[in-house]
């Protein structure tokens, strides 16, 4: 068949503009929505899967994305600042001074406020998302590390790593209302879809505590791999995944049974982890291998590995609070 010169030219331009992507069998898992990763080894943030890279501050740790997917906030623990970006363009919108050694950062489900846990100062910094300014600094307890919001955004739960507790925060008044005792240096925390249960990973205990919010009772303690940890509950509440940066696995926990049901080998140094909004894939920052391991949440197999840059630390996924 003879190819017309115009057809050849169009084909050449299409290949030039949209080169073919080579994937392995394990990579042929469908498209991935954009998500965001802090790179401790490069003082940067990377957006995947397109690989866009944004300059950031010293000792980048945690990262979060607004519910509408338009803004990204990340903590520079080395500069005591939050870096704010436009999620689409990568434009740096502001550097926001906060308390000493900020770690966890979360944006409320309504997108109106963010909370940074100032671990070194024992405070929370409340950030107005419209003005990107701190509107209140609240003393909360020893070594606050990270936060989980209730689904309505009215309550926040903050892990107090130095105080063996979870601070309960009224988001509207920006005040601490109570504290739930959870022993073992609570490090990271997530919440069930029905807002009734907290899942708290402790550095000293090396356990995942399953905590009834209403009573404050610890219903189960689940053994984990070596710390420290990231925790994520699937959107449907069917599974809880817990990393362990001193090991090579992600722990799989059945919340109904309060038991660990398996472990997924992902590579050296898994820490940050977040599922996509559909709960189909889990993105795990494997800090020792400079990759994101993509885990199928049904088969518990690694189906893809995405290069990130040096020392990926934490992951933020639109639609996963």
Task: Estimate percent helicity.
Answer: under 10%
CATH class categorisation = Mainly Beta
Widest β-sheet, arrangement of strands:
3-2-1-28
CATH architecture: 7 Propeller
Overall number of domains: 1
Mean pLDDT: 91
What are the low-pLDDT stretches, counting only 5+ consecutive residues below 50? 1-30
Cα end-to-end separation: 55 Å
- SS-derived structural category: mainly beta
Tell me, what's the shape?
globular
- Tell me the number of strands: 28
Fill in the CATH topology.
Methylamine Dehydrogenase, Chain H
- What string gives the helices and strands in order? HEEEEEEEEEEEEEEEEEEEEEEEEEEEE
Compute the CA-based radius of gyration: 20 Å
CATH superfamily: YVTN repeat-like/Quinoprotein amine dehydrogenase
Number of helices: 1
Largest sheet: 4 strands, antiparallel
Give the secondary structure arrangement, pairings included:
Blueprint: H1 5-17, E1 35-39, E2 44-48, E3 52-55, E4 60-65, E5 71-76, E6 81-86, E7 92-97, E8 102-107, E9 113-118, E10 123-128, E11 133-139, E12 144-149, E13 155-160, E14 165-170, E15 175-181, E16 186-191, E17 197-202, E18 207-212, E19 218-223, E20 231-233, E21 240-242, E22 249-254, E23 259-265, E24 270-275, E25 281-286, E26 291-296, E27 301-307, E28 312-316
Antiparallel strand pairs: 1-2, 1-28, 2-3, 4-5, 5-6, 6-7, 8-9, 9-10, 10-11, 12-13, 13-14, 14-15, 16-17, 17-18, 18-19, 20-21, 21-22, 22-23, 24-25, 25-26, 26-27
Task: Briefly say what this structure is.
The protein has 321 residues and is mostly beta strands. 4% of the residues lie in helices and 50% in strands.
């Amino acid at each position: 068949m003879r190819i017309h010169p115009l057809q050849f030219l169009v084909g050449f331009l299409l290949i030039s503009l949209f080169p073919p992507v080579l994937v392995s069998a394990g990579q042929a898992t469908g498209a991935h929505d954009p998500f965001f990763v802090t790179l401790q080894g490069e003082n940067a943030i990377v957006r995947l899967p397109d690989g866009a890279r944004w300059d950031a501050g010293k000792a980048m740790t945690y990262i979060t994305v607004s519910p509408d997917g338009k803004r990204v906030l990340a903590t520079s623990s080395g500069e005591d600042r939050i870096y704010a970006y436009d999620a689409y363009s990568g434009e740096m919108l502001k550097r926001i001074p906060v308390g000493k050694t900020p770690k966890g950062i979360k944006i409320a489900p309504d997108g109106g406020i963010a909370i940074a846990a100032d671990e070194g100062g024992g405070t929370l910094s409340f950030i107005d998302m419209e003005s990107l300014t701190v509107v209140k600094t609240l003393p909360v307890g020893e070594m606050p590390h990270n936060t989980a919001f209730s689904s309505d955004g009215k309550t926040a739960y903050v892990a107090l790593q130095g105080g063996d507790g979870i601070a309960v925060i009224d988001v509207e008044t920006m005040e601490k209302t109570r504290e739930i005792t959870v022993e073992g240096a609570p490090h990271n925390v997530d919440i069930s879809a029905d807002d009734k249960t907290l899942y708290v990973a402790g550095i000293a205990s090396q356990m995942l505590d399953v905590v009834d919010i209403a009573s404050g009772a610890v219903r189960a303690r689940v053994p984990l791999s070596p710390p420290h940890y990231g925790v994520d509950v699937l959107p449907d509440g069917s599974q809880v995944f817990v990393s362990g940066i001193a090991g090579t696995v992600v722990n799989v926990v059945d919340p109904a049974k309060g038991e660990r049901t398996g472990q997924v080998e992902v590579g050296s140094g898994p820490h940050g982890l977040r599922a996509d909004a559909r709960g189909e894939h889990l993105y795990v920052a494997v800090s020792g291998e400079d990759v994101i391991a993509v885990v199928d949440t049904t088969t518990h197999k690694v189906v893809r590995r995405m290069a990130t840059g040096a020392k990926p630390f934490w992951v933020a996924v639109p639609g996963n609070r």
